[in-house]
């Protein structure tokens, strides 16, 4: 038995049970440890041919007032009225740049937290369509308890209205491939990334129950992007192309982020650090907002070999190694269509809030959009 395997086997039984319940795989961790010290670029960067998106890979929404826009809207509304849509929000983060609190519980508008505004969206959709749009929150060990407490009576374990499920966890490693111990001598647990969503959602049972009652589409969005709301026109466009996945993209406007590319001829989304050395990401004018419309059936059946990228973290004043998977790499497992959406004005769909200064800047736009879309009454 290797040193790392012995270290893991010697962990207290309650800790091992807690880890295994959240997707922990000792054999996978051992494989990660064996790769530390090897060329990180060789691990993280995509092999094969990487090219800019081809003409037609990035599509535009039909213009308002056109027959196609009206058709998309009606198709989306019909799907909502049939109860075929669920909203899945990524809510595992701590607001480390906003005081180290649970981000879902940060006050965005007076008396309204991120969680409150997502609940208000859910309430508005129910009023508008006559049926509930389930709100599923992918939490982490750090956020699950406080979020469930804040939900109170609104919590519905079956997922018909509002529920939570936890993303996976693993253990940090040292640069030498041993277990990383914190300042108290305890193993350092971390969440393995938004790419956990398909597996964690299936394991929760929520997705299976949704499919059993006729669910068709899972709308996935970041908690802190309050522009990424359920929109009937975008839903209708997604359903119209017939594929299993739509990814929202916006103009870069000087920002950086993973964007649409062709990898070995296939349209995918890839982060900049995944690109081959020498590939200029500036040739791609848009990037992914981490908003996806996915076929519930395709999510349930998805079987892919996820790449866990190696990430170096500072824990205190020490270096730790952890391995994470990225949600946009779902495009490597499901054929994807890319839809350019607005990032300005009342139609804006990209309003991320990463720190207090950004919240102050975006607060007027967030309030205006929430009112325009019927979430504040």
Give a quick precis of the structure.
It contains 12 helices and 19 strands. It has an 8-stranded mixed sheet, sandwiched between helices.
- Structural class call reads alpha/beta
Rg calculated over all Cα atoms: 21 Å
Shape: globular
- The proportion of residues in beta strands is 15-25%
CATH topology: Spore Coat Polysaccharide Biosynthesis Protein SpsA, Chain A
Instruction: Report mean pLDDT, rounded to a whole number.
Output: 94
The CATH architecture category equals Alpha-Beta Complex
Largest sheet, order of strands side by side?
A: 2-19-13-16-12-3-8-9
Question: What would CATH call the class?
Answer: Alpha Beta
Number of helices: 12
- State the helical fraction: 25-40%
How many domains, in number, for the residues? Answer: 1
What characteristics describe this protein?
single chain; 377 residues; alpha/beta; Spore Coat Polysaccharide Biosynthesis Protein SpsA, Chain A; eight-stranded mixed beta sheet; three-stranded antiparallel beta sheet; 19 strands; globular; UDPGP_trans; UDPGP_fam; UTP:glucose-1-phosphate uridylyltransferase activity
Describe the structure.
There is one protein chain. This protein is α/β, with parallel strands linked by helices and 377 residues long. The protein has a single domain (48-167, 194-372), classed as Spore Coat Polysaccharide Biosynthesis Protein SpsA, Chain A. It contains twelve helices and 19 strands. The chain has helices at 3-9, 13-20, 26-35, 40-44, 67-81, 114-129, 141-151, 197-204, 206-212, 232-241, 296-301, 356-372; strands spanning 50-51, 58-60, 85-90, 94-95, 101-102, 107-109, 112-113, 135-139, 162-166, 169-171, 189-191, 217-222, 245-251, 259-263, 266-270, 286-295, 309-315, 318-324, 336-340. An eight-stranded mixed β-sheet has the order 2-19-13-16-12-3-8-9, with helices on both faces. Strands 1-14-15 form a three-stranded antiparallel β-sheet, with no helix packed on it. Strands 4-5 form a two-stranded antiparallel ribbon. Strand 8, helix 7 and strand 9 form a beta-alpha-beta unit. Helix 5 packs across helix 10. It is globular, with a radius of gyration of 21 Å.
């Amino acid at each position: 038995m290797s040193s790392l395997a012995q270290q893991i086997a010697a962990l207290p039984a309650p800790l091992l049970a807690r880890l295994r319940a959240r997707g922990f795989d000792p054999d996978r961790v051992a494989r990660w440890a064996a790769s530390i010290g090897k060329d990180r670029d060789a691990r993280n960067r995509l092999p094969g041919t990487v090219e800019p998106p081809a003409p037609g890979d990035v599509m535009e929404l039909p213009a308002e007032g056109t027959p196609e826009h009206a058709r998309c809207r009606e198709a989306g509304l019909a799907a909502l009225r049939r109860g075929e849509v669920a909203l899945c929000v990524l809510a595992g983060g701590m607001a480390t740049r906003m005081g180290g609190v649970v981000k879902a519980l940060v006050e965005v508008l007076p008396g309204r937290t991120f969680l409150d505004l997502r609940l208000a969206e859910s309430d508005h959709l129910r009023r508008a369509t006559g049926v509930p749009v389930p709100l599923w929150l992918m939490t982490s060990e750090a956020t699950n308890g406080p979020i469930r407490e804040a939900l109170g009576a609104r919590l519905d374990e079956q997922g018909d209205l509002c529920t939570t499920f936890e993303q996976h966890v693993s253990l940090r490693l040292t640069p030498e491939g041993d277990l990383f111990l914190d300042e108290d001598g305890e193993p350092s647990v971390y969440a393995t990334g938004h790419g956990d969503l398909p597996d964690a959602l299936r394991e929760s049972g929520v997705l299976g129950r949704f499919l059993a009652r006729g669910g068709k589409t899972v709308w996935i969005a970041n908690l802190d992007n309050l522009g990424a709301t359920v929109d009937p026109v975008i839903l209708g466009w997604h359903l119209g192309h017939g594929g299993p996945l739509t990814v929202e993209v916006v103009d870069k406007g000087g920002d950086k982020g993973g964007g649409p590319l062709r990898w070995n001829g296939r349209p995918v989304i890839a982060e900049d650090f995944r690109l081959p050395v020498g590939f200029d990401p500036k040739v791609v004018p848009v990037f992914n907002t981490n908003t996806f419309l996915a076929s519930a059936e395709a999510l349930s059946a998805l079987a892919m070999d996820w790449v866990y990228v190696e990430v170096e973290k500072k824990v205190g004043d020490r270096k730790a190694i952890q391995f994470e998977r990225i949600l946009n790499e779902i495009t490597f497992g499901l054929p994807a269509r890319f839809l350019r959406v607005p990032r300005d004005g009342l139609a804006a769909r990209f309003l991320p809030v990463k720190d207090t200064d950004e919240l102050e800047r975006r607060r007027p736009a967030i309030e205006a959009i929430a009112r325009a879309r019927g979430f504040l009454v």
